[in-house]
Input
Amino acid sequence: MHADTNHASAPPLLEIDAATVLRGGQPVLDRFSLRVDAGRHTAILGGNGSGKSTLVQLIARQLYPLAPGNGRSPVRVFGREHWNVTELRGLLGIVSPAVQRDYTSEMPLEVFDVVVSGFFAARGLGLDHQVSESMRERARGALEQLGASQLIGREMASLSTGEARRVLIARALVHRPRALLLDEPCAGLDLASRRRFLESLRALARSGTTLLLVTHHVEEIIPEIDQVLLLGQGRVLRQGDKAAVLTGDALGEAFGMPVHVAQHGDWYDAAAAPP
Ligand SMILES: Nc1ncnc2c1ncn2[C@@H]1O[C@H](COP(=O)(O)OP(=O)(O)OP(=O)(O)O)[C@@H](O)[C@H]1O
Output
């Protein structure tokens, strides 16, 4: 399901062309290629250690690929190879466990300030930040969109995992990025919080923000996502329409054991097949 149909002539949101990333001297992404068109909500699925977080860091310019030798970068975002990191984050909101740890550490940071600071790509508000009424208005709107308005006034360190995640997504959305990259957004959420959170992601997907969802849980792939990439040991095992990729065979290969996949309406789930 595409977010909207006005992207026909836009460059792809993301193009990765045979990128290799080394960590500890070993290739953890190995000649990895991926294309995500703007508006095409995509899930990146893989087991522990398959390279998902490395991929997020590659896209966020926190890790760099090996130079391919042709002078070109193997990673292009919105058609461009070179980005200033602040500018890139204005177009691509990123929420990951590392971002959440950073915001919920001991330093006192108030929820509303955290969301407004998204306009300045800063961790909190400082004296030199000129906050306009329209910025405040948009921050209130983003918190409302995530069902987190009641948290205004609270300190980040006092929030539950799910509450803090909603605030950080509001912060990532405040300057209206064209896409949102979410790394394991449901980690640490209980059943009810996860369902509510996934419903808010569905609303975002329908509102035109392209979602890139990184997860190891098939049941978090919301119906609006129609492309799935299956990652195994740093390589693309399968990529394509959800129905073609979410099969027992493909997931069995990714997770290294027999997997049973069930479909419930527009949702899928997967479990280890009984021995
Ligand atoms: N700093 C590092 N030095 C050496 N190896 C690393 C480093 N960081 C990650 N790796 C290795 O890279 C591989 C991919 O790790 P990555 O964190 O990207 O996987 P992941 O798919 O996000 O895993 P998980 O689902 O467990 O979070 C793993 O084998 C991991 O041990």
Q: What stands out?
A: The two ends are 36 Å apart (CA to CA). Residues 191-206 form the longest helix (16 residues). The first strand starts at residue 14 and ends at 23. The pocket of adenosine-5'-triphosphate is lined by residues 23-24, 28, 46, 48-54, 216 (CB under 6 Å).
